[in-house]
Please model this.
Amino acid sequence: MLLFCGRRLLLRIEGRSMQPSLEPGDRVLVRRLGQTAAPSLGSVVVTWHPKRSGLRLIKRLSRMDSTGLWLLGDNPAESTDSRQLGAVPANLLIGEVVGRLPLGESEQSR
Model:
């Protein structure tokens, strides 16, 4: 799911790579980052997958260096991240998560 709200995106979490911080079905508000803005270490960011076009990754930023962004999932057993992919080029960064909307009560019962 992708909604546009000005410079922000509303995305729905799929997969379990960010558990327990984010659960499948949660919605997150993502602030797009411009060329000059940089996310802070430890923040949760969204990037384009470096090897699969059209697929987005949501991971925690663990390090930034000259090779790119080092991204890790909070659930290593369920995450494809920099442990497998290496550094993700900084130009693939979409934005930083600035809010979370937990799965609603009505959706949990489905």
